[in-house]
Amino acid sequence: MRSFLCLLLCAASAAAQDPETLTHWPFYQQLEGSPDGRYAVELDHEALGGSRTDQADLRLYDASGREVPYALRVRRRVLTSDIVEARELNRSTRGETALATLDLGDYQGVHNEVELDLAGGNFRRSVAVEGSDDGQSWATLTDHALVFRFSSSGRSVDERRVRYPDSRYRYLRVLVSSDPAVDGAAPTIREVKVRLHTEAEGVERQYPQVYPIRQPTRENGRPASEIQISMPGAVPIDSLALSVGNAPFSRPYRLLAGGPDSRREIASGVLASDEQGATDRVIRFEEAFAKELTLRIIDDRNPPLDIYNVTPAGAARQVVFDSDGLSFPLRLYYGNLEAAAPNYDYDSRVPAILDETPPLLYLEPRQDNPDYRPPQPPVTERAPWLIYVVLGAAALALLWLLRGVIREASRAETKPGDPA
Q: Could you give the count of Cα atoms lying within 13 Å of 133 in the half-sphere of its Cβ?
């Protein structure tokens, strides 16, 4: 019995490690390269439009049929702001200016931002930041920076952070000037936090230009234009660059994603330009996947905008892999909507945020996989008559059982009674 269980476990383990059959992937794109290090390939609109929105169905194989582990990276612009430990030494005032001095102690890294918690509301105050190695001689890092806080009609805006050039000074001194319009004395500094602000530049992927179709419509009862924008598949986008011919203009707009029965708003605002003649304007929004976009612009009594073309763009998706020992060309397969995420160990060896892009390889045009076999539909779709056969057989079996029950009941009724 123990040997039998071991055999079962070994068989299950071997089955779990069997290579996936590529007959379930309908598309592939080929790429050329050389086996000499780390590369990246940027997914184009064909790969993005034909794969899942999370790209978990991507599979990379070399010419010998070897599966190639990869790491997928979405190259969005990433902003981070981390707190740097600092000890406040003192607070003081100098006329109508409040001062706070901080000691960063043994911290040897870079800092470039302070966050201020100030008392009061509806103010606009000037801020200067100074740095020192000894707490005696001070160098100006920034001056005339502004912080403000305003509230109106239940809405508020609060800008409390001040940036300055990268610095390694141990001591910082923050000077906050009063707002002559609302302050009668030096403002009160409640707290100062020192931060390190970092920014990883993203990589933008521009898709082929789209030449939109305009139709007159009404928006909230006002004359408007409805512009249909067909995308090259359900690709990830976070901006639209519009080439407009008849500036200046200022028009309210709404941007909708999805088809006629499933539209949802992804952006709204005012499309405006003070320039004369042709101009480009960019609409930015949270990333969305959509095959169709609808831009509605309220024209009122103005002539419709001449939008010559639209350029969609979004954060690039890059597949990073090591090419050592591989046989080129490689093939990138996709389109299997039922595929499980590969979760390669290799992913942990590639930085989550790429400071630099590895050398890029380029995808050739999409091809149909000749070995693709579409998934079989359920048996009830392939043989709809089968359900009637099953139901008929079940009915016959039930009749047979009922016949037996009736016969047994009849026999019981005709059986002679026991003698007295």
A: 2
Q: Are residues 331 and 306 in the same domain?
A: no
Q: What is the pLDDT of residue 356?
A: 87
Q: Taking the CA of residue 220 as centre, how many other CA atoms within 13 Å lie in the half-sphere pointing to its CB?
A: 8
Over the Cα atoms of the chain, what is R_g? Answer: 34
379 within some domain: no
The domain total for the chain is: 3
What is the residue-averaged pLDDT of the chain?
90
Q: Which of 167, 200, 233 is the last residue of a domain?
A: 200
Choosing from 253, 281, 315, the residue where a domain stops is 315
Evaluated on CA atoms 300, 305, 310, 315, the torsion sign reads negative
Residue 416 lies in a domain: no
Give the strands of the sheet with 171-177, arranged side by side.
87-94, 97-103, 171-177, 123-132, 139-152, 155-159
Whether residues 163 and 53 share a domain: the answer is: no
pTM for this model (two decimals): 0.67
CATH number where 123 lies: 2.60.120.260
Count CB atoms within 10 A of the CB of residue 58: 23
The reply to whether 120 falls in a domain is yes
Reference 135, options 167, 103, 90, 180; nearest CA is 103
Q: What is the pLDDT of residue 296?
A: 97
The neighbour count for residue 186, using CB atoms within 10 Å, is: 18
Cis, bond preceding 370 (omega within 30 deg of 0): no
In-domain check, residue 336: yes
What local confidence, expressed as pLDDT, does residue 391 receive? Answer: 76
Q: Domain of 323?
A: 21-74+319-368
DSSP string, 117-180: EES-SSEEEEEEEEEESSSSS-EEEEEEEEEEEEEETTEEEEE-EEEEEEE--SEEEEEEE--T
- In angstroms, the first-to-last Cα distance of the chain is 62
Number of H helices, E strands in the chain: 4, 23
Whether residue 262 is found in the same domain as residue 337: no
Q: How far is CA 391 from CA 77, 109, 396, in A?
A: 60, 76, 9
DSSP 410: H
